[in-house]
């Protein structure tokens, strides 16, 4: 029996290893784990159950794609097909790499078998049996590797088919997406056209309904007015009866007031005649707010009023206190709201002779003025159309329309969008009726907005003028300011 030393075995292993490693490139750094099964079959070691084979991965992905195909949109389906195509390409690349690795394994097994054959002729005894067993194992590995190569070729064919299928499906999906997109665009355009037609029809219908509704409303208003007129003609209401009665009573009261005034004047004239007082002048005009009083000569020997000194006073009917009216030194005086309920008196001095004229009674308020002012008080700002007659004592040539704003906190005079003056209520502000100036005095007022700026404003009517004075004084009183006339005289002109 031939004896093999340990050194000889080590030498043979080194030779075999060097012979194999010279021409072979290993795919991994370690040799695969194999086990010998029954009938000398090589069996792979159990791998991690979590790692799936390539065939299982392909089948799983295909099943998922087929399962999700029904519930995915066209765009998502195309995206999934593209992902599947990429996965198929990746699997094809992996199969190519595995084919290369398999070829390397064949070369490795062939070289290993050649090495073992050369070693078999050099050893004897038990070592020779080990070498023969190793040769049988290598042959079994080669057979198993050949089977695996067949399986890989089959998987490669399936992968190619799947890739072609996914590629075709991707192209079909893209084509379907393009068709659906074109169809959707056509539907959108048709929907827009339909919406536009509906909007135009609605606008036309709205215009027609507005025109017909306006015409129907006008006809209905005319019919209602006609019905009211017929009803009032045939069945007058109690309110209309009361209004007619009040109007008649007012007319009767005005006539009686005029008659009473004439009687009082006649009585005063008779008393003066009894006292042998020469009746040279008398007061002419209605003794009510909104009118004006004029000194009228009633004798041929009466001197000219321009040569006389004139001064108006207001006398309290309760205390008989006489109050001088500043600036009222003309032959004409228009009562203002302060004069309501008081007696007016005028003193005429000529050549040292004093002539005193008084009204027959207290100045009466204007009918309906109080209710009119109460209605205006509810507003935050009240506008009056005026004309500026004088500004800072000088005549104002322009007769353009201005707007006087009487507010709760301030007064403002505007011309169009331009503000001429705007001032809050203060102690330096003055407001009163114009004292003198003929017939226009009953429609004009004097307003000193601040020191150095004053105007005379002419209103459209006596009622507007007196309402503006009463309203401004009421708002100023709420601000603890008392609006009164000037200390000096002021008038529109000499009369």
UniProtKB/TrEMBL annotation:
Residues 281-378 form the Stomatal closure-related actin-binding protein Ig domain. The keyword 4Fe-4S does not apply. Residues 54-96 form the Stomatal closure-related actin-binding protein actin-binding domain. GO terms for biological process: actin filament organization; regulation of stomatal movement. Residues 100-267 form the Stomatal closure-related actin-binding protein coiled-coil domain. It comes from the Eukaryota. This is Stomatal closure-related actin-binding protein coiled-coil domain-containing protein. It comes from Gossypium raimondii.
